[in-house]
Design goal:
The chain is mainly alpha-helical. The protein contains 17 helices and 3 strands.
């Protein structure tokens, strides 16, 4: 009898402890997540490039076929040897020159407004209210960037190569500002894509240019102003943290919606029991800090510090249920943390690859040959060979193949091969011809 009482008592105590642990929702002490608070700058409307971009979008005439022309094969049009060969399918099978002329003719009035936006040194978007906001202007930013690419191509094909390089660098600068424009991670990613457009056009022009080494060195030096935008990444992450926590709080109270979403889905009452705001806040803040702290490391070091998440087994699901925050943990895990920590290395590699392509062209002009190794670029063009942000080692260069490359996210040297037979991404190549 005594043994039975002891067992019942032990079970009761265990269940009580489990219930306390399940119901307990620790709160962060005031100011404990102050490091994740975003301080929004003040920019006068007259100095804010957002409104010039908005005005340019309103003037832009951009049918679907123009967007197709600026697709993945667009950079082939910079080749001086293939000026009149259509590289992108289009309904009328027009030559690149005809398509470019049509784009520019239909958008003459856009140029002054876009130039004003490109010249602005400040860019601050309207303050986001929720992660459910639509941010309808972001796709339009991409269309404006494509129009700037066409202008760049027109300058280059019209033998105004200096202005073509300047136009591309203005696009790089615009993307750089977009990355730190007071928005969320989506703004950073759109800015990164637009910045990459400008860098790829610089790479394409460098392969064909007739400019002197001195001219190209000037553009090489200008690129130093646009490193991977760690400040923009940090600020975007801070805004993500703020709105994600507001979203968790709204879900806990039974609603979820943003000022522009028009949606107010209601979670089942039972599901609300498995969201603990305090636990979510602690978990999310730890994830954010881990990503931000690794921002100065190579991608290989990031992965070693923050290894990819493993699929949950049945026992993991039981433990998650017992912790009382199952829905919250699932929602936090759905964020692409592994993908996020590859963004800074990608931006850095695109910049360093572009700078190195320019330096190699300068060397080729000055010495009438390509170097055998990248170390020959030091110190005339670089103080040191640029590193591959994925593994922290110098970028790879195959002189015989005239190929510069980064090893990419798989962290394996595939000798510059971009894709395998199954279309898995391998290296990031920067061809020199």
């Amino acid at each position: 009898m005594n043994r039975k009482k002891i067992w019942l008592g032990a079970i009761f105590l265990a269940l009580t402890a489990l219930a306390i642990a399940w119901l307990h929702d620790p709160a962060l002490s005031p100011g404990s997540d102050a490091d994740l608070a975003y301080t929004r700058p003040e920019v006068p409307r007259s100095q804010n490039g957002f409104f010039a971009l908005d005005a340019a979008v309103a003037q832009l005439d951009w049918p679907q076929e123009f967007g197709k022309f600026c697709g993945k094969n667009f950079y082939d049009h910079f080749s001086l040897a293939t000026h009149e060969k259509p590289k992108t399918p289009n309904a009328t099978n027009q030559s690149p020159s005809a398509i470019i002329a049509s784009i520019l003719q239909r958008n003459t009035n856009v140029v002054p407004t876009l130039d004003q936006a490109l010249a602005s040194t400040n860019l601050l978007v309207p303050e986001p209210q929720s992660l459910m906001d639509n941010f309808n202007y972001l796709p339009d930013w991409k269309k404006l960037a494509q129009f700037q690419l066409v202008r760049t191509l027109d300058f280059f094909r019209g033998s105004n190569e200096p202005e073509a390089f300047r136009a591309a660098l203005r696009l790089v600068a615009l993307g750089h500002r977009m990355q730190d424009s007071g928005g969320v991670m989506l703004h950073y990613l759109v800015g990164s894509a637009i910045k990459t457009m400008g860098l790829k056009s610089v790479q394409a022009m460098t392969r064909q240019t007739r400019l002197s080494s001195a001219d190209l060195r000037g553009f090489l030096q200008q690129l130093d102003a646009f490193p991977a935008n760690r400040a923009g990444f940090t600020n975007a992450m801070k805004n993500e943290y703020r709105f994600a926590m507001e979203m968790m709080k709204n879900m806990r109270s039974g609603s979820l919606g943003g000022t522009n979403s028009g949606l107010t889905p209601i979670l089942p009452s039972a599901a609300k029991l498995f969201i603990k705001e305090g636990k979510c806040r602690i978990l999310f803040s730890e994830k954010c800090r881990a990503i931000l702290a690794a921002g100065t490391l190579s991608y290989a070091e990031m992965v070693a510090r923050n290894p990819p998440g493993k699929p949950r087994g049945k026992l993991d699901m039981v433990h998650m249920f017992l912790r009382g925050n199952a829905v919250g943990e699932i929602l936090v895990s759905q964020i692409g943390w592994d993908n996020l920590q590859s963004k800074i290395p990608f931006d850095d590699v695109q910049l360093q690859g572009t700078r190195t392509v320019l330096a190699l062209k300068c060397f080729q002009i000055d010495h009438n040959r390509l170097p055998n190794t990248l170390s020959e670029l030091v110190p005339q063009y670089f103080p040191s060979v640029p590193d591959d942000a994925y593994d922290g080692k110098p970028l790879r260069f195959l002189a015989d193949k005239k190929l510069l490359y980064s090893i990419g996210t798989d962290l394996k040297d595939s000798q510059g091969q971009e894709w395998d037979a199954k279309k898995n991404k391998l290296d990031i190549p920067f061809p020199l011809e």
